């Protein structure tokens, strides 16, 4: 008993410095940023860098402005862009990574060499990747020269076109419909597993949301005029570079997963009469699901806070290829609107939290299950 | 052996003591973004300073990044952290006054101007630009002109056109060139170079007085005349290349040289690029005129240095500022940087053919400040206008752009 407590004491002592540093430099600063975002620091240029600035608490005004003021169109486009970027980036990395892993899993010649080649881009920083791909995708250079493409038509990074546009005013409506549909799915599942109360509650909420969406939703106006946002074509160039950089990493993850599947399981599947494709579909892919989840979490948070790649490829001044992290930098350090910058940072943190926190919960739960 | 070590130790200690004694004689940290092409000009100035004030250790704290993109962020964190550099570079005008002077971070230099006799040596427009509520806050060391239109005489001759002097004739010339098969008569680069075109259009359409009224709040952006600047700018954009956002200003200039475009509007640092890097002959291989409608106006931008409050080496900084404002200091620096002296009495024989013509204009034309380069508007506005420009290039909605600019001006307290 006594030995245990000295052990505990030691472990606490050893952990204390890092806990303290984390408390100050991570959580303390998160709190500080969160508080700054509720003030008007920098909204008056004269107060931004004053020796004794007058900083007032203004509540959620900065957030309201970001989502509804006519001057913050760029922020809203950035949110939409980030969403599209994340989806394509994750899909691209998972698809390409899995295909490469499947190819390598068939034991080709010089497998080690291929592995190194595929994994190599990950050893570069995003700044280097960005610079290389900027050269390659430039209107007058790289790919366009190589394939004799017309630079005026193949605007990898400079296009101003946008597809899948929607009106920002419809966001409350769309959110309500999506949540209602999700609730309907929950209700259906509850119905299948015969959980009566659960089904009824879900159905009730879904009905309320749908009624709201039909009756009130169309009249809600966040902005005086319609404002269109969509997927900017110029992002394709950046997605290519990002996928190039990170798909080697997903390949490595998948390859480890594939190698971890015992040969007996495959043999058993074959004995049961499964052909190659159904072995993959019914046996191997389900076993890879946890890896897919981890990869999605890691890629997801990389893509939400991406900054350096975009900065290197198209610079800080291109609305068509802007992301929230870049806007936060410009707002804080160029526009001197420190509180608004902090608000953008907080929104980014919340976005990342939406991805990470459920994952952490599931991790904790499974760990508790083991111990 | 042991003795030797001892002597060596003593010698090293003595040397270290001497060195620190020399340091105690003074040091000066100069914070700027002059790396690369502009490095030699700064180095020449520092050399001159060290020759005049031996014993002062100069620390050249350069943060690379064009137009100070990175340096300004570093400077802001240092100022907020209570560690100001002894003297830092800032564009003369609102970029300095609107950020640092209004925040009460700079010392008044009026007495320096009076004792050095600079009140009559710098143009009044420039002194007004670096003044705020009766105080003078920085010493401009160089001047650039932003409203210059560059072209190749050979290209114009080939297509049978002349350099237009008004925006109306520019658009006609553009139509002629397009009809003769030149797809993009005007070549432009990334965002800030596009804003320079708007600036040239606005000064051309509004005139110097209207332009200044815009920044003093007397003229609203929603005024039909200002909306008109966006309409004209939109028509000018129709003459330009679509892939502009992917081009640096040098790449844009290269297209002009390749004959793919007839005109390029760029500040006069382009002259340095054309003569030094491209080895072209001014006047024959390339030529220039004021951007349309602005022949009588000189849209200026200038780099300047000031004295932050609370620095330790104040005497050394004052000597540095004296050197910057002196005739010999400006004539050392500017020929190397490719700019002209802010003083009107510089020795023109040291300058290039282009700079001589610019210096002549500097003395004779009406001087107004550039918005893009931090002279006319504060950073909050300048930075936000980049986004407005970007939106306008996409949607070409002049009314919306003017309204957004007015909202931005109100929010950034322009003219208050």
UniProtKB/TrEMBL annotation, chain A:
InterPro entries: ABC_transporter_permease, MetI-like, MetI-like_sf. It is a multi-pass membrane protein. GO terms for biological process: transmembrane transport. Keywords: Cell membrane, Membrane, Transmembrane, Transmembrane helix, Transport. The chain crosses the membrane at residues 12-31, 79-104, 116-136, 171-188, 200-220, 232-258, 279-304, 337-361. Pfam families: BPD_transp_1 (PF00528). This is ABC transmembrane type-1 domain-containing protein. GO terms for cellular component: plasma membrane. Residues 79-361 form the ABC transmembrane type-1 domain. Belongs to the binding-protein-dependent transport system permease family. It comes from the Bacteria.
Automatic annotation (TrEMBL), chain B:
InterPro entries: SBP (IPR006059). It comes from the Bacteria. The keyword Transport does not apply. Residues 1-24 form the signal peptide. Keywords: Signal. This is Sugar ABC transporter substrate-binding protein. The lineage of its organism: Bacteria, Thermotogati, Deinococcota, Deinococci, Deinococcales.
